[in-house]
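Saturday, quiet lab. Running sequence design on the C-alpha cells for the scaffold JK sent over.
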C-alpha cells in the first residue's frame, strides 16, 4: 500500500473514531441538558446564612421525591453531600453498572464501608441516592406490609403511581431471564404472575428503572416535578449537625436549622423561617446517615454521645439500634453458550421466606454493540472482587490482599468462563439485627456498622432452603440450555486447578470436595445486596408521622425507619414514602392554616 493511501486510510479511521467520541460526548451532554435544573447549585455558591420553610437533608431515593412534593407549596432547601448523576456513565449506563461500586475515589458516587462483620458494602453519595447505584429492579411492597406500617393504602397507591409514571419501565426479557423464570416455575415457585409491580407469592417479571436504551432513571428525575422557584438544591453540602433550642415554656428542644460544610470547608447556616408553626428539618440521609446525624446533633444514647464529646440534647437509646442488612448468597452458573447482559428482571417469591433473582452476562464495564465490537470485559460485574463482593472466603478473611489476588485470578480465566449468570437469593426480613455507632464526630466519616448476619437461626434456615431452591432451578429442563452437562465439562471451560485459591465466585454445581452443610455455606458466602435499613424505627425513634420522639420540628423519612425490608427490593417503597410523606405534610400544613383562620373569626 502506498504512503498516500495509508495516510488516507488513517485519516478515515481517525475521522470515524472522532465521530464516535463526539457521539458519546453528545449523548452525555444531551442527558445533562435534559435535566438542566436551574435550582441545583454547588454548595460553595450558597449564602453563609439562609432561611427556608423546609430543610431536607439527603437528596437520595426518598429525599428527592419528598423535596419535589413539598416545593409545590413551600420554600424548600435540599442538601446533598454528593454530586450530580447526569453525564456520569458509571451511573447512567446499564453496561457500566458495576463500575460505580468499584470506584473508591473521594468523588465516587458510592462511598465504600466495611461492616464490623467483615462484609464490604457501599452507601450512596450522589443526587438520587441508592437509585443511582442499584440493579434497577422495581417492585412494590406487599399489601400486608402497607397495613402493618399503618399507611393510607389509597394514598400509598397514588404515590406509587406518581413514581412509576416518571422512572419505571417494562424490561425486555432476554432468553436467560426467560429460562430463569421457567426454571423457577418448574422448580415449584408458583404461580406464574407474569409482569407485575405487585409483591405476590410465585414467579414474576418486575419493573426496572433502566429504559430500553440501557439508560438509568433515578430519584433525581423527580426534581423535574418540583416548583423551580420554590426549591433550592445544594450539592457537595455535608450537614454536620442539626441546631436545637428550647422555646419558652416548652420542655422539648426544637430543631430550628442545620449547619453544612461545602467542598472548600466553609460552614453555612440554614434556618427555618419564623412564623411557620409547621416548618421543619427532615432527615432523608439514609440508614447510615440519618442515625449518624441525629447522634452528631446530640440525639442518641447518652453514653455514646459523651464518649465523643457531644452535648446531649435528648437521650434516646434507640437511635442506631435495629439496623439490618438482608444477606445475599449467590452462585455463578457457567453457560456453554453466550449469554446476553441483563440485570434483575425476574424474581421468585417463595413461601418460605426467600427471594430468588438473577443477573446474566459477562460484558459489564464495556458497552458491546454490533458485529464490529471486539473488546469484552473480563469481570463478573457486580460480583467482581473490585466491587468488594468476594463470597468465596468467609467475611473476616476478605482482606484487601484477598481481593487483589481474586482479581488476578479472575483476569487469568479463559473468556468462556465469563459466559453464564448469577442466581442469588435474599431472605425475608431479616430477623437478625445490629447497630450503628459513631467512630468520630466527623460527619464525613462512615459510622461503625454491625449487621449480625445470620445471628438468628431462622435466617439461616431460610437461606439454606433458598440455596436448595436455586440448585433445583439449575437442574430444570427449562434452564438446561444454559448449564454444562457435568462438572468435568464445566471445569474444562474454567481451566481451573482443583485447589485454586482466591477463586472469585462460587460456582454451581459446587465442587465435589465442598461438603459444607448449606447452613455453614450461607454463613461463609454471605454478601450484601445493599438493602440495609433501620436505626430510626417507627415507634422507637420516630412516631407514626415520622416525627422524632422527644424533640420538635424534626422528622426522619427514609429507609432507616423500616423494621423489615419491603418486598424483594426496597427502592420502590422508599421513593413512594418520599412522595407519600410530602403529601401528608402539605395536608397537615393546610389544616393548621385553616385552623388559624377559623380561630380568628
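Result came back. Writing it out in full:
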Amino acid at each position: 500500500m502506498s504512503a498516500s493511501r495509508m495516510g488516507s486510510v488513517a485519516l478515515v479511521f481517525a475521522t470515524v473514531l472522532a465521530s464516535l467520541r463526539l457521539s458519546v460526548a453528545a449523548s452525555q451532554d444531551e442527558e445533562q441538558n435534559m435535566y438542566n435544573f436551574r435550582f441545583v447549585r454547588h454548595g460553595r455558591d450558597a449564602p453563609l446564612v439562609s432561611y427556608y420553610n423546609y430543610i431536607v437533608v439527603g437528596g437520595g431515593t426518598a429525599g428527592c421525591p419528598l423535596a419535589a412534593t413539598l416545593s409545590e407549596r413551600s420554600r424548600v432547601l435540599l442538601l446533598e453531600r454528593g454530586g450530580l448523576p447526569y453525564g456520569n456513565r458509571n451511573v447512567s449506563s446499564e453496561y457500566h453498572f458495576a463500575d460505580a461500586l468499584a470506584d473508591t475515589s473521594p468523588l465516587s458516587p458510592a462511598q465504600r464501608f466495611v461492616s464490623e462483620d467483615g462484609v464490604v458494602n457501599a452507601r450512596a453519595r450522589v443526587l438520587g441516592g441508592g437509585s443511582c447505584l442499584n440493579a434497577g429492579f422495581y417492585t412494590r411492597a406487599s399489601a400486608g406490609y402497607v397495613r402493618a406500617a399503618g399507611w393510607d393504602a389509597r394514598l400509598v397507591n397514588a404515590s406509587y403511581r406518581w413514581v412509576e409514571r416518571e422512572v419505571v419501565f417494562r424490561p425486555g426479557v432476554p432468553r436467560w431471564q426467560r429460562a430463569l423464570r421457567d426454571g423457577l416455575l418448574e422448580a415449584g415457585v408458583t404461580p406464574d404472575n407474569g409482569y407485575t409491580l405487585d409483591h405476590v407469592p410465585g414467579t414474576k417479571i418486575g419493573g426496572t428503572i433502566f429504559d430500553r436504551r440501557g439508560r438509568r432513571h433515578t430519584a433525581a428525575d423527580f426534581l423535574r416535578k418540583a416548583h423551580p422557584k420554590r426549591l433550592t438544591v445544594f450539592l457537595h453540602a455535608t450537614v454536620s449537625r442539626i441546631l436545637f433550642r428550647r422555646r419558652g415554656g416548652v420542655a422539648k428542644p426544637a430543631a430550628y436549622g442545620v449547619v453544612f460544610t461545602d467542598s472548600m470547608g466553609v460552614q453555612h447556616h440554614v434556618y427555618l423561617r419564623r412564623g411557620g408553626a409547621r416548618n421543619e428539618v427532615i432527615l432523608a440521609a439514609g440508614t447510615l446517615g440519618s442515625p449518624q446525624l441525629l447522634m452528631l446533633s446530640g440525639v442518641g444514647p447518652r453514653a455514646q454521645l459523651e464518649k465523643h464529646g457531644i452535648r446531649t440534647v435528648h437521650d434516646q437509646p434507640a437511635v442506631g439500634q435495629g439496623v439490618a442488612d438482608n444477606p445475599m448468597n449467590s452462585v455463578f452458573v457457567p453457560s456453554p453458550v453466550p449469554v446476553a447482559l441483563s440485570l434483575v428482571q425476574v424474581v421468585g417469591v417463595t413461601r418460605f421466606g426467600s427471594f430468588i433473582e438473577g443477573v446474566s452476562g459477562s460484558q459489564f464495564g464495556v458497552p458491546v454493540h454490533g458485529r464490529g465490537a471486539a473488546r469484552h470485559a473480563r469481570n463478573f460485574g457486580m460480583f467482581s472482587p473490585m466491587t468488594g463482593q468476594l463470597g468465596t472466603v468467609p467475611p473476616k478473611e476478605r482482606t484487601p490482599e484477598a481481593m487483589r489476588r481474586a482479581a488476578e485470578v479472575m483476569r487469568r480465566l479463559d473468556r468462556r468462563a465469563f459466559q453464564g449468570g448469577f442466581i442469588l437469593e435474599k431472605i425475608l426480613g431479616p430477623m437478625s439485627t445490629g447497630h450503628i455507632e459513631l467512630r468520630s464526630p466527623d460527619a464525613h466519616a462512615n459510622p461503625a456498622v454491625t449487621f449480625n448476619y445470620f445471628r438468628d437461626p431462622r435466617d439461616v434456615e431460610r437461606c439454606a432452603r433458598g440455596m436448595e431452591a436455586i440448585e433445583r432451578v439449575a437442574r430444570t429442563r427449562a434452564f438446561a440450555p444454559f448449564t454444562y452437562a457435568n462438572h468435568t465439562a464445566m471445569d474444562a471451560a474454567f481451566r481451573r486447578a482443583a485447589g485454586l485459591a482466591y477463586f472469585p465466585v462460587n460456582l454451581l454445581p459446587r465442587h465435589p470436595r465442598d461438603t459444607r452443610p448449606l447452613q455453614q455455606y450461607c454463613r461463609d458466602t454471605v454478601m450484601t445486596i445493599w438493602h440495609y435499613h433501620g436505626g430510626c424505627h417507627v415507634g422507637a425513634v420516630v412516631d407514626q408521622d415520622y416525627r422524632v420522639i422527644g424533640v420538635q420540628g424534626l422528622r426522619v423519612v427514609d429507609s432507616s425507619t423500616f423494621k423489615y425490608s419491603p418486598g424483594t427490593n426496597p427502592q420502590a417503597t422508599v421513593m413512594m414514602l418520599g412522595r407519600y410523606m410530602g403529601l401528608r405534610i402539605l395536608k397537615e400544613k393546610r389544616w393548621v392554616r385553616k385552623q388559624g383562620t377559623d380561630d380568628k373569626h
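Notes for JK: The first strand starts at residue 40 and ends at 42. The longest helix spans residues 3-34. Ask whether to fix the surface positions before the next round.
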